[in-house]
Amino acid sequence: MAASGSGGAGRADNGYGSQQPRRRKGPGALATTYLVIYNVVMTAGWLVIAVGIVRAYLTKGSYHSLYYSIEKPLKFFQTGALLEILHCAFGIVPSSVVLTAFQVMSRVFLTWAVTHSVKEVQNEDSVLLFVIAWTITEIIRYSFYTFSLLNHLPYLIKWARYTLFIVLYPMGVSGELLTIYAALPFVRQAGLYSISLPNKYNFSFDYYTFLILVMISYIPIFPQLYFHMLHQRRKVLSHTEEHKKSE
Amino acid sequence: MKHYEVEILDAKTRDKLCFLDKVEPNATIAEIKNLFTKSHPQWYPARQSLRLDPKGKSLKDEDVLQNLPVGTTATLYFRDLGAQISWVTVFLTEYAGPLLIYLLFYFRVPFIYGPKYDFTSSKHSVVHLACICHSFHYIKRLLETIFVHRFSHGTMPLRNIFKNCTYYWGFAAWMAYYINHPLYTPPTYGDEQVKLALIIFLFCQLGNFSIHIALRNLRPAGSKTRKIPYPTKNPFTWLFLLVSCPNYTYEVGSWIGFAIMTQCLPVALFSLVGFIQMTIWAKGKHRSYLKEFRDYPPLRSPIIPFLL
Fold it and tell me: What are the TECR-like N-terminal domain coordinates in residue numbering (chain B) (predicted)?
């Protein structure tokens, strides 16, 4: 017979999930070293992309079709960000695996499954729009992490991270949406990544419809993330203000 | 008899919500919850989580006041679990959906396939068999919910019903669309494949049912006792020798059978997702068993013999 014993606070409840308070351990010395190296490399990588865009612009004299000059480093460093999912999974970074996976996968999706796969959109100005937004955001984000890990975060970087998104985020989203929209007719025409009935696995997938659903999903997701960042901004920047005032 | 005093504070704000005096020492948490509801009727007992420590685990309804590590003035912390819905209601809703939805596709009601297919019937025998199997599966689940299962918890959070129904109804519609499609392609190895799949399916349905009956018999009506399940005379229950949750093992087997029968990728994906979820549940249950019972059979693994 299952005895509940003297204390009532026994085991985890089925319907409500486990409620043990978790003590979060920071990354050890080895993990910290690795993360510093990772974040430095990523900062450098996105700086390379930034420099590449500027040089290409100066060389060509116009801002059209600059994608080709930074195509390879963009693919390399954006895809490299997949490692961040593992960082969360192994607990050396205290973020949610699901949230991080979602964010990284959406970037990787745009890089490979839209821009790379639909060659006809690579000339579009919308590509430049999101590449610039991503580049500035990532340079700031990775240097923010680097300095945080070294416990020496300049206020400027913290301010930049929690302020520039106000413009960069809508800019990036616009670029992304316009690019997907531009890709649609070519996807339809080529039947890209699509499979239709009949086939022996009794399955169908219409990439054109899928892209439209992706675009629609921005409507609920973008405001939530944007307001979350605004909320974080208020918390983080006002907290620093209080610290400064008390000095 | 010395009476207890019980004060109930909000776990987050520490506000004093309720003060009960002259509480019997042998009062249960369930009775205290009922008393609390009197002063705060919007918090019916199912929504209440009472604990000894604001960040600790919930006390159980069966816990008796005088057996708790409290003085004669007990302080309990309250957390609102949010709107609740009964397990029975959730199960009935989430299972009735797939039953009906699949039939809509089977009978090819208008607006699903082209107008020339409305209310037509598939020419493949496996499609009719699949409908029978799918319907049988969900009718079995509905009947088990009403007559067999003895739930540990009365309720779960209300938002679960939306999450669960989306999952079951969504997948049912997705599968049913392809199986009953005018362009459906029957299995590559024909009748042999369907026959084998049907045997697997029926075997696992019987197995799953046998486990549900065995689990029911472990627990007297209206109680919440927990015991180690053991094999009975029914050979299907002998899987308990190797596995903690053979009901899940058989369930995965049933869907694999159905996937082979229909040779339909969405069915295979549904089986995979279900397998992942059931593995998570089985591992949790297995861990609970190990924690609760010193003499738990060491040979058992959570869901797949020797492997998982």
Answer: 5-80
